[in-house]
Structure formats: C-alpha cells, structure tokens
Amino acid sequence: MTVIPAIDLIGGRCVRLRQGSYSDATVYDADPGEVARSFADAGAERIHLVDLDAARSAGDNRETIGRIRKTVSCSLEVGGGVRDLESLDALLQIGVDYVILGTVLARDPDLVARWAARDQRGSRMLASIDARDGIVQIAGWQEGSGIAARDLAVKAAEIGLAAVEYTNIARDGMLTGPDIEGTREIAGAVSIPVILSGGIAGTADTERIISRGGGMIAGFIVGRALYEGSFDLAAAIRIARGSSA
Description:
alpha/beta; TIM Barrel; 8-stranded parallel barrel; globular
C-alpha cells in the first residue's frame, strides 16, 4: 500500500481546505518545494499536488509545480483544472508522472477516452472521483453531476485510466477518519487500483486501512493531518511497506 502526502497550491503557496471550501483555507508553508523535499526525505514514493487556482479558473501553479519537479525525484501526480488536452500535455511536459482528471471525466468521458487512447496517455491519467452522499461533485465541488461514484469509477476503468482516487467530501480536511467502506465499495466495482482520500486523522489510520481494507485499497492520500502534526509520514510508510512485504 502506498502512502501519498498531499500539497494543495494557491498562489504558489501550500494550503489546505476544509471540504473544498476556498473560504476556509489555511496557509501552512510559503515554500511548497521544501514541503515536497521533506516528504521525499521521509520516504514518500509519490506526492499528490492539487492546483486550486486552476481548479477555479483563476490562473495556475505550473511554475511552482515545475520547481517541485526539479526538487524531488519521486513520482508526482497533479490535478486541478485539467479540462482540456492542452492542460494535460502541459503538465506531462514539465515532468509530471500522472495527471488527475475530475470534472472533464464526469462531463465528457468519451473525450477522456480519446485522450487515453493517444500515445498510451491512459497509463498516466488518474480518475478523481469526489462524492457527496454517493454522487460525484464537479467544478471544484461546487456542482452535483447526478452521476453515482461507482458508475464513474466503472467508466474510468473501461476507458483505460490507470487508477481511481476516491474522496468522500464529507471527510475531506475534517480529521474524522477515512471512509474505508465507501472506498472498498468503489474498489470492488473495478479492476484498476483505487486510492482513498479524505479524513485521515492520524498515523493509526494506516493500520485501520490495512486491517479493514481487505487488501482492496491500493493506497491513501493524506493532507491536513500531516500539517497539523498528528500524522507521522515516515512511520506510516514503514507500516504500509510492511503490509506489502
């Protein structure tokens, strides 16, 4: 199982939101590159980056992402506002390993299927499925899509995306514990890896996901708990690697 630390970016700064609310943002560090370096030094094999400016069509943080790419050698996955092929390719060209697609996948899965089929891009594309009461939310979680999370996960697998990242929005940034059962339900519907996101409260959640995940959860993303000091990344990575031994 892979432990994936998260960095959310607004204006080149590292922030965290609660339940996706831009009005409830906490700035943790002015230098995301140093944050990324600390994660890599703790043993992270992959870092999750979200461009919150791009997600709300208020510019982008590609320059910052490029600096992070030069700072660390581990894999980077980036999401937020990737709604056209130009945006996707721009991220791949600066060295991002995986690009995360949310809104465009829900709105036009056939378009995403065409992207995935070109030059084997699908192996570098991840589905972001963010749900409230089981229904996928889009446009920075501001709109309901009317699509069931399970159905969109199935579609993502069918069109050749590499993995699904599932977020229960009610848990995101709240430190209330992860939605293990909901993530297992998604994982049981598809043959591609499923990664849990949202609600991680502390290091002990690593063992909970291992014990209750039934081997169905490929990894998890952790954000606020890291910055609040309740999650020991290096310890969690050791636990997760032990579970895969």
